[in-house]
Amino acid sequence: MATPYSFPVKRSITIAGHPTSVSLEPVFWSALEEAAREAKLPLSALVARIDAERIAAPDPSNLASAIRVWLFQRARG
Q1: What pLDDT digit, counting tens, does each position of 60-70 carry?
Q2: pLDDT of 16-54, one tens digit each?
Q3: pTM for the full model?
Q4: CB within 8 A of 26, min separation 6: which ones?
Q5: In what residue span(s) does the Ribbon-helix-helix domain sit (predicted)?
Q6: Which is nearest to 28 in space by CA: 51, 48, 1?
Q7: Which residue ranges make up each domain of the chain?
């Protein structure tokens, strides 16, 4: 596994039939993959859920930031 201080890695993902790219540090990609496995969802489906929550917010951030915040909140329980 890469160091937690690695540069972001860009990946392509399809959300609601639309391709997009997301840049996250490897530690966040690993945590997101783990969350998807635990939820028994494809990674793209979990990202779509996070994206829907992000869009519904009064002042939505970018998708990568929303994913990081979602993972942080999940870790805090």
Answers
A1: 999 999 999 99
A2: 899 999 999 999 999 999 999 999 999 999 999 999 999
A3: 0.91
A4: 1, 2, 4, 6, 9
A5: 8-73
A6: 1
A7: 27-76
